[in-house]
Predict the structure.
Amino acid sequence: MAELNIEERQAGDVTVLDMKGKITIGEGSVALRTAVRRMLEEGKKKILLNLAGVGYIDSSGIGELVSSYTAIEKDGGQLKLLNLTQKLQDLLTITKLLTVFDVYESESEALNGFK
Amino acid sequence: MGRPCFLPVTSETTELSLPSRVEAIDKAATAVAELVTRSGIGEDAAFGIDMAVREALANAIIHGNKLDETKLVEVNVTNSPDSLEVSVHDQGQGFDPETILDPTKEENLLKSSGRGIFFMRNFFDEVNWSISPTGGTTVHMIKRRAN
């Protein structure tokens, strides 16, 4: 089984990536990078990462979230995060990245947050 | 025959030697986590310790030994009544930890790397690096038990 499974679905003009597994150095981080790059190549620039199924993330995974954010913003798009576990929320708090990311607990609110 | 006596908890040490492969991180961290669980450290602290240990292992394997599988990473974990201490030794050239930028400063927030050492310092009470006279770098992390 892959370290990180990513399923794509469309909600209006927003692409939701439902993620399950670990975003850690190696396979998990690469899977996220590959998925986001593919979205941008396909012109999908409004991306919502549903992290409900992500039980573990390390500094490499957090770095990949930051890289995804900067790549999407650079391309004129938007990235938002949905359903963070308490642990991930704690990690984003201590790294002060909660001040960078738009984070939601409700999918409908997240979708409404896209311009 | 005297009365049965119960020895006070002393120390438990685990030593591991692993190849410089990314896949080795999970195996070694799992072994350390088992000792941490046996030590009775609470769940939240154990999560942080696990994360910091994985970061130290990743640094040793990737930045220290540069994924050279002929080089080993050695891990020593000692659980005592006062503290939990973890040492991770690689065969790399070492680095100056003072050169690591603070990832929480506004100008560094959007950098994609540089948070591993931050987590190690955040989740342990003390983190020190030393360069061995025989070569290689050791990071030594201490988590003190609350009295």
About this structure: Chain A touches chain B through 21 residues (CB under 8 Å). Chain A has one domain: 4-110. The longest strand of chain A covers residues 46-57.
